[in-house]
Amino acid sequence: MLALLLVLVLVGAWELYADLGAIDDFILPAPSQIATALWDDRSLLWSNLLVTAQEVGLGILLALVLGFLLAVALHFSGVLRRGVYPLLVASQAVPIVIIAPLLVVWFGFGIVPKLAIIALVCFFPVVVTTLDALRSVDPDQLKLMRTLDASRWQAFRWAEAPAALPAALSGAKIAVAVAVIGAVFAEYAGSSEGLGHLMLQAIPQLETARAYAAVVLLAAFAVLLFSALALAERRLVPWTHRPEGPNR
Amino acid sequence: MDSPSVATANVEAPVQEPRNVNGGAEGEVHLAGVTRSFGAVRALEGVDLDVRAGERVAVVGPSGCGKTTLLELVCGLQQPDAGTVSSSPAVLMPQRDGLLPWLRAIDNAALAARLAGASRDEARARAHPLFAAFGLEGFERARPHELSGGMRQRVAFLRTLLSGKPVLCLDEPFGALDALTRHEMQEWLAQALAREPRTVLFVTHDVEEAARVADRVLVMSPRPGRITAELAVPPSRTPDELLSVRERALEALRSC
To answer: Which residues contact A110 (CB under 8 A, 6 or more apart)?
Structure first.
């Protein structure tokens, strides 16, 4: 409710600023122009949104799976942790614009290079949050597992993995915003469809309002995806949403 | 509802062979000259301890006197630097209940069976009769965060019992409970153990609790932990006798 009010105030201020004519339309379109573009270009925007949404959704899923597996591998192997962790950090410093063309050369204009880029920008928060959670499992619980004769694998299966699952999902939530940006960059680097591709075409055609309409859709999609992950969290890890206990 | 209520229940007899290092019969614990240090800190020094099968021994002492270390040695979670530890298979009930938040109460209680390869239904079927017997009926499907502190301790104790091991090591089992619940849980534990006899080694900083639950109370000195006094609790446990044990334990604690 408060968020909606805030948006209304900001949009109102933006409309006034744009209408007073300080800046050209093709630099900053007014919200009313963007709304018109949203309506007029709706079928074009929708078909491109579907493309980008698929890239982002699958990319995040890929990042979640890979990130979780990598975190588990790093957790089990100190050698790997010392050797690979710094490289992971370094990988995040590589600007996407540098490697995106290479991926396009390797994998073509299809969905694969997009997934690779989105997974690359997204898996890092998943790895970091998951690994931290795996390493901070309650030592009492691990002692308990040992005293009940659990194997190393059983201790992981029963105590560590469930403890790390909420963290992996938090990591994915953090990753949502960068995933959308990653998708746009990936489409900039080489694509024939998608909202990033649409923006790339709209701006030189001075259809700035259409590019902004695409941004509005991307932002809305990010919010939707974030909510979906929050919902998945409630389903998958119900114990973290604790209603206040009756008498604790 | 935290009222003590215990009925008869059949817990399966211990399934494992004793992990006896130096002989020692089923359900016995023997420590001889045990010393354990962590870096420069000497946690335990020259501890001798013999627990008979079925006996309940309480170890009281100030915080940080190596009580938890003692239990972890008996459970095989640590090795002594000097001396010998030989014990029948022992299971630890950690200080904070150690319940797994993602498992329902009954699955927490049945954890040992699951780890031993039983299916979920088998394990639940084995744990189920004990829920009613131990005042937990109707809470089978609750998650730990939905249970009160006393209930959580009951589930944790049930999990310990269902491990089938002859020696139970309880680390401050009621340390986190309020005074009233604590009192109820002491009664509950005494009744539970009357129904399901086990060798019990438990540590506490509360001498009254020790006198109420144990057959024998050992007093430990602050670091390095040594056993400085040993007090037998008369089986009749009249209020006067309990008071006397308590006074003597406090005296021993003050003079060490």
So the answer is: none
Q: How far apart are CA A214 and CA A12, in angstroms?
A: 20
ipTM here: 0.80
**Cross-chain Cβ contact A148/B163 below 8 Å:** yes
Closest Cα partner for B66 from B219, B238, B246? B219
Report the SS3 class of residue B169. strand
Contacts of B143 (CB under 8 A, 6+ apart): A238, A239, B101, B102, B103, B104, B105
Question: Which structure tokens are listed for A60?
Answer: 């995040």
Residue from A96, A186, A154 nearest B116 by CA: A154
pTM score, two decimals? 0.78
| Alpha carbon of B146: minimum distance to chain A alpha carbons (Å) | 5
What are the pLDDT digits (tens) for A2-57? 888 998 999 999 888 888 877 888 888 889 999 999 999 999 999 999 999 999 99
Per-residue pLDDT, B9? 44
pLDDT digits (tens, 9 = 90+) for B48-87: 999 998 899 999 888 777 888 899 999 989 988 988 898 8
Indicate yes or no: CB of B100 within 8 angstroms of CB of A150.
no
B21 and A CB contact within 8 Å:
no
Backbone angles phi, psi at A235, to 5 degrees: -75, -45
CA A247 to centroid of chain Cα atoms: 39
A224 C-beta neighbours (distance < 10 Å), count: 12
Question: What pLDDT does residue B10 have?
Answer: 46
Question: What residues 97-156 of chain A have any CB closer than 8 A to a CB of chain B?
Answer: 138, 140-141, 143-150, 154
